[in-house]
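Margin note: ligand = pyridoxal-5'-phosphate.
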Amino acid sequence: MATRHSAAGARARRSTFLPFSPPSITEAEVEAVVDTLRSDWITTGPKTRRFEQAFADYLGAESALGLNSCTAGLHLALATLEIGPGDEVITTPMTFCSSVNVIEHVRATPVLADIDPHTLTLDPARVAEAITPRTKAIMPVHYAGHPADMAPILEMAREHGLYVIEDAAHALPAAYEGQMVGAIGDFTAFSFYATKNLTTAEGGMLTGSPEHIERARVLGLHGMNRDAWKRYTAEGSWYYEVVAPGFKYNMTDIQAAIGLVQLERLEAMQARRRQVVEQYQAAFSQLEALEVPAERANVDHAWHLYVLRLNLDRLKVDRSRFIEELKEWNIGTSVHFIPIHLHPYYAEKYGWQPEDFPVAYHEYQRVLSLPLNASLSDEDVQDVIRAVVDVAENAS
Ligand SMILES: *Cc1c(COP(=O)(O)O)cnc(C)c1O
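Resulting structure:
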């Protein structure tokens, strides 16, 4: 039995390692960068403006601000809304650290609310319990690209006079009940980090109302009341005023040049992601040892991540061993995320115990993310499926 498996495995195993999430870059992006470098404007300028406008148009957002990261966008959103000491912001433990780090940056207090066990996004019932007179904002994270349950979140925000700041690092393009993410809350922050659905290597975009975005634009560029690039154009002047101790968060035209091409390619890249997801869903939903990601009829999933869950009571191995065995099959994986309350800084500062957010804690122990990107070939997808099925069956 063991011999048969290893012989079959040796034959089927990939000869090269399949990376978890390589960027999808074509000659068009390369040419756009070279073009920008040969122009006389390389930092924030006309291409950034064009990218902001195209991005806002694509989502149906009122206004957009190009930035050097999503983290910068979340920080600027909090700073623009003057959220600070004594204020509380409710968010999820199932996120990347930067969602919560920015709350610390403005000296406000992060309050975690546990997640829904099916979608792994904020559970509105837990958010309701977390609201206090000090709550100023709710920060949903559209985990893996599945929009959080926005209707009850927006309802609670209205009722209690709270802002809604969305971490949409995974959610381009996604929609909740027909409305694109980016055109829903007060502020929405997107990431163009190297692994995200649209990349500019590093970069981000913040969407919101024109008033909010213009305030964020000033704060995001040193608190200067003029755009630096306009100062050096013919109609511009040398004069500016610093109206706040702002940050240096602007996007460059080199990033925007990549972003404009990537935005053109986004629908095609998404179509490929969906094809891969269909094949994964069909293959893995057959196996009792595995739980496939939730799909909901009222949302359009951005499929940034394909998060498989292990039914540990049906397996002889834990998640770490499962990942190690996939690595032996030359398949790269990742884990999203180590919950916020388990990280030493947060556990110590707020006295959080693993079981304080039991759903996030338990789901964390059985999640793993499989390769899902626009560069996967049909053969790559079959290699992933074969490896996962083999590892799951052998461990069942
Ligand atoms: C990637 C990511 C971020 C940070 O994005 P940057 O552009 O790298 O700042 C924030 N939140 C989540 C959920 C992410 O996955």
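Residues 69-71, 95-96, 98-99, 141, 167, 169-170, 191, 193, 204 surround pyridoxal-5'-phosphate (CB under 6 Å).
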